[in-house]
Amino acid sequence: MITAAVLTALAVACAVGAWRLTSARWPWRAPRAAILLWQSLGVTWGLATVGAMLAYALEPYGAGVVYGLHAFADSAISFGMGFGLLQPYDLPRVAALVAGLTLLAVLVTVLLAAGALTLRARRRHRVLLSLIARDDPGVPGVRVVDHPGAAAYCLPGLRSEVVVSAGTLSLLHPDELTAVLAHEVAHARERHDLVLLPFSALTWMLPWLRVVRDAHSSVALLVEMAADDRARRYCSPRRLATALLRFGTAGAVPAPNGALGAGGEQVMARVNRLIKPGATLPRRFRYSLVTFSVLLSASAPLLWIYPG
């Protein structure tokens, strides 16, 4: 019962932490560390929620979650072969076992389904780009689509592609274009699509839950800010801010499914951050935040194997 209680408290703490983090502004000062914290909260919440139900259900075996599942499987096999009886169970423990295994299956299935849909959308878009996109000597390594609207996005994958429209080339000054392309390359190199995938899957599964929607929005904004920070190494922050404003006023074309665009939501928050950057979080605090995130991520798996 101790393991179940601790896992329940951990799940509640992660949910409360995520709720508080959606309205916090300090993550804007260290987006990469904040993204790691978000990932840690999400993984720990899922494992702790499932683990709490399984720990309660398997408590009669006195072997924890992992070894308890193994003991339960052995008992079920023996019972099916007529060599033994299952551990005696009451209705609440049976319900907790079914609920825990169901939730685990749903979380894994939704994540895999979201990944499969994303990969299929990217595959279709790559085929489309092979038909309509062209190379331009003025922007080497970038695919250009002859479209009058403003569009710039990254299509992530093993062979990531950065795509811009002809309208973008005519809209932006050369240094602004350099800033936008650096932003998209940052998305590709840091695989921000993988960061967003679990939160997109959770939003797909629980669209009615406000904290889930806010969490996805917060992580999406942090991803864009992280890419902005990477782009600032190669261009002036004001030029990137100007490019974002041009995209906003020109009515930028949304990025296709499975891609990450330069525009996105909350553009003004990013512009204000670029023009008037606040002080970054102290290095000691960022290191402490990373250490806390790692320890938090390890807590639920360790409790799963704790024999009690």
Automatic annotation (TrEMBL):
Domain Peptidase M48: 120-199
Cofactor(s) listed: Zn(2+)
Record's keyword terms, sorted: Hydrolase, Membrane, Metal-binding, Metalloprotease, Protease, Transmembrane, Transmembrane helix, Zinc
Keyword Protease carried by entry: yes
UniProt-recorded Gene Ontology molecular function terms: metal ion binding; metalloendopeptidase activity
Record field: transmembrane: 36-58, 65-89, 95-119, 285-306
GO biological process entries: proteolysis
Record text on cofactor binding: Binds 1 zinc ion per subunit.
InterPro entries (UniProt xref): Beta-lactam_resp_regulator, Peptidase_M48
Domain of life: Bacteria
Pfam families membership: Peptidase_M48 (PF01435)
CDD domains the record matches: M56_BlaR1_MecR1_like
Family: Belongs to the peptidase M48 family.
Protein name as catalogued: M56 family peptidase
Species name: Sphaerisporangium album
